[in-house]
Amino acid sequence: MNHSLNKFIINNVKLEKLESRLNKFNPLNILKVNEYELRHSNVLAWLLDPNENHGLGEEFIKKFLGEVILLNEDINLEISVVDIYLNNFYDIQVLREWKNIDILAISHSNKMIILIENKVKAKESEGQLKRYSDVVETKFRDYKKLKVLLTVEGEEPTENEYVICNYYSILKILTNIMKLNSGNLNDKVEDFINYYIEVLEDIVDEDEEIIDLCREIYKENKKIIDYIASNKNKIHITKGSMEEKAVNVYNIYEKSIDMIFRHGKTTTFLEAANKFIKHNNDVILEKESNTYYCFINSSMDKIKSLSSEGTPIYYIFNNRLNKNNRLRMFIEVQSFGDNYQKRQEFLHELNKLDEFHIKERSFNPESRYTRIYSKSIVVNDITEDQILKYMNELYRNSLKDLNKILEVAMNIKK
Question: What does 33-71 look like in DSSP terms, one character per residue?
Fold first, then answer.
């Protein structure tokens, strides 16, 4: 074990590279903004207020609301794209912790309420969302309302009147805003937002180079990393023991080891999904994580030219096994890029078939993610073999509908 520990920390170029990437100076990390919902909510409330000193005016709030509508385009919402882009939001009041609600934005001139419950590490408390909803419904009876549960991965709310948003969406909005406004903002504001973007990148784990590096390090040092992880919180340890050495190493490399353990150690869901790809010659992996698995059927290659932004249609396995023992599978239509008219035509033609029911808002030019097929199954025995079995079952059962989808898409392509 001593040799494994030494091998892990001495002249480990990959560990040094990871350390360098993770320990880049960021004052917001020193303040631990990344760890506390309260601090994220403070930043978001600041960005949402058009009258604040960031100099962005309505840009963030309008892009945020637009993103929420696009993410939930299959749901009938009280607030529409027209409400957002044709109205002025400079009268908006952004309140923090009003009646314990994380963020409440009120526009009296537009008779509009935006309720945001923000969850970074904590989970919903029982009855929390309903309680906040009831308060807002009572106080603002005649107002249009958008109630949002904001989480790292877009977790589904327990209350039906809430819609989802995730931190990747916040990252995407801010990244695009900074590309458009670079050099036009106050230098200190620009630095602050860029630092916050780095915090968001860490939270959503979107840096594929870091994820790949973590997996390589874990694969090469699995035994000692598991040992460190199992001993890192021990208090009563013998001086000079292996446990003490493990705790000391963890204290030195805490951020890197936590990152390696999170990304290197794959879940049962991911192991099953990787086997699913190997066992099915007609599927191609697009993107993976411990919570979702994105892939395409090889036949989808025939319709790639419909989109200027990659594969226009793809499959997603969604992992909710730890929450409700449910494995879900979607077929989703993404943006067609510059070919949005073909996207509209495709969805209109698909909607003519009895098997598919497309929401009206999905035909908007701004629409980007439209779920056209959704099935789920309860997995009572959460083992790799059982998950794989149900993945295969869900996939096989979808192929008849997939053929109809591809037939419509091919006709549009002509």
Answer: GGG-HHHHHHHHHHHH-TTSTTS-TTHHHHHHHHHHHHH
Which structure tokens are listed for 351?
């909607």
Estimate the share of the chain in helix, then strand, then coil, as percent rounded to the nearest 5.
55, 15, 30
Q: How many domains does the chain have?
A: 3
Q: Is-contact 188 157, C-beta < 8 A?
A: no
| Domain boundary, last residue among 152, 187, 204 | 204
Give the span between the Cα atoms of 77 and 91, in whole angstroms.
22
Q: Please check whether residue 154 lies inside any domain of the structure.
A: yes
Are 282 and 403 in contact, with CB atoms under 8 Å apart? no
Instruction: State residue 359 phi and psi, 5-degree precision.
Output: -65, 150
Give backbone dihedrals phi and psi of 211, rounded to 5 degrees, phi first.
-60, -45
Distinct helix (H) and strand (E) counts, the chain: 17, 10
Q: Which residues contact 183 (CB under 8 A, 6 or more apart)?
A: none
Q: Find residue 117's DSSP bridge partners.
A: 149
Confidence of residue 408 (pLDDT cuts 50, 70, 90): very high
Tokens of 311: 């594969």
Q: Which domain holds residue 89?
A: 28-204
Give yes or no for residue 206 having a pLDDT over 70.
no
Q: Are 74 and 370 in contact (CB under 8 A)?
A: yes
Among 235, 264, 293, where does a domain finish?
A: 264
pLDDT at 287 over 90: no
CB atoms under 10 Å from CB of 36, counted, come to: 14
Mean of the pLDDT values across residues 250-271? 87
pTM: 0.72
In a domain, 302, yes or no: yes
Interval 329-381: pLDDT, tens: 999 998 887 788 888 999 999 999 988 888 777 787 777 788 899 999 999 88
pLDDT digits (tens, 9 = 90+) for 213-235: 998 999 899 999 999 999 888 87
